[in-house]
Write a structure and sequence with these properties.
alpha/beta, 6-stranded mixed β-sheet, two-stranded antiparallel sheet, 10 strands, 29% helix, globular
Length: 232
Amino acid sequence: MKILGLIPARGGSKGVPYKNIKKLNGKPLLQYTSEIALKSKYLSKVILTTDDDKIMKVGKQLNLEVPFKRPAELALDASPTLSVILHTLEYYESKNVFFDAVCLLQVTSPFRTLQFLNNAIEKFIVKETDSLISVLEIPHEYNPHWSFEVNSSGNLDIATGESEIISRRQELPKAYHRDGSIYITKTTVIKNQKSLYGKTIAYIESPKSLYVNIDTIEDWYKAEDMAILLNK
């Protein structure tokens, strides 16, 4: 299976300015993701898509391919990730280069390991699903079976649509949320369904000890503490 490793890193970042190339424990944040992506035996090509000259320069220094500069309209706060992926696929297809799937690796999840990435891709290949995403288990107190939505009468309905709430924690089915670390999707699903998920979604559970999703300065401080601990 021919899989494209795609690392998106735009220049605009309000929470942590230039976070994608800001140094975390001595190396650019981008480097954490690029290092494992380039080592994976399952990724046929690994590229950086960015709108920013500084990030392009750092990416090239990290041995990432940077085949184009991303159009400005695909680097806004509101720009959908799906559009960024489609733009990349269209670029390569115009050069008669085709991929079976895309593995999206966001820079803001720096502590995924090579083994975790390879395990995710192996599971995606074996399961033959439309997609695979990395997830974390939702704590029982936030389980959707214990969540409520306001109905048209202004009262509460169980969010899952059940008429009776599950009373015991032990009886709750496990529920998960995407953690943003890994998305792998068949190219046909991306192009034909305009979706990162498709109809069948496999999953791999991320280690909680390695989880951080850097969006705010508080997240950055957490990542700094984690980086120090992980390098001891």
